[in-house]
Structure to design on (250 residues):
């Protein structure tokens, strides 16, 4: 049986609940600054989350809801500038520390480091946005590779980010485990031949996760039990390195 060598974490929704109170708020601030009357409500944002990547999400929104708003030949430049502004606002928000890590994330990362398990990131977010969270609560140096946003051609659910992370880790997928929160993310990991643990959140709790090996409500902690929504682990009360090895062996 292969020994667990690395945990590969998604960022948004997995390490922290960044979408509703982070990215969404920053998008709206950027829209306001640009003089746009667009407002991404919590409900609308849930729909927009089916599109991975901030720039891709803005484009989808314009095409779907504001098709007459902008001239097509200037659209790409406009989206890039808008997204740069959004990134500034998002980084400011994260620096304030108002978005904490999800339950069990700090503990699992500490435990993995103590046991010599490598850590990596595979996120659709732009690199500065991923770093904003990691710099605030963790440490970029702990991660052997941070695969983010435009480093690859195709965003999740394509497997490119996971393949990139595996390549830089120098590891085969049977020795690594992906930790995700969304169906697109679980699909991306599956396409890269990785086993996946999903921790659901409010935006993803009704998704099906056909490709996940274990679905939890959180990673949990010794004093804050997690619940299994699908799958099986022996003697489970929270997710740890031992549980990760069990998933690899299953
Ligand atoms: C989540 C995403 C991102 C963020 C916005 O990615 O799809 O696009 O919503 O970030 P993941 P950017 O769950 O894979 O981390 O604006 O930086 O794209
Ligand atoms: Mg995610």
């Amino acid at each position: 049986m292969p020994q667990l060598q690395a945990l590969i974490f998604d960022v948004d929704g997995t390490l922290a609940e960044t979408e509703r109170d982070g990215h969404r708020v920053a998008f709206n601030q950027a829209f306001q600054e640009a003089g746009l009357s667009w407002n991404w409500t919590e409900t609308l944002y849930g729909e927009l989350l089916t599109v991975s990547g901030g720039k891709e999400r803005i484009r989808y929104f314009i095409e779907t809801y504001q098709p007459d708003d902008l001239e097509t030949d200037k659209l790409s430049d406009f989206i890039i500038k808008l997204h740069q502004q959004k990134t500034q606002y998002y980084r400011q928000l994260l620096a304030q520390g108002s978005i904490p890590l999800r339950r069990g994330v700090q503990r699992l990362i500490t435990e993995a480091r103590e046991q010599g398990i490598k850590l990596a990131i595979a996120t659709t977010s732009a690199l500065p946005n991923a770093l904003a969270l990691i710099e605030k609560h963790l440490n970029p140096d702990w991660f052997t590779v941070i695969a983010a946003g435009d480093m690859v051609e195709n965003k999740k659910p394509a497997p490119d980010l996971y393949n990139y992370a595996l390549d830089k880790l120098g590891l085969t997928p049977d020795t690594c485990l992906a930790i995700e929160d969304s169906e697109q993310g679980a699909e991306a990991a599956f396409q890269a031949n990785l086993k996946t643990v999903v921790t659901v959140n409010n935006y993803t709790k009704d998704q099906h996760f056909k490709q996940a090996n274990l679905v939890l409500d959180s990673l949990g902690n010794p004093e804050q039990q997690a619940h299994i929504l699908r799958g099986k682990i022996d003697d489970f009360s929270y997710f740890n390195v031992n549980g990760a090895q069990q998933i690899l062996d299953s």
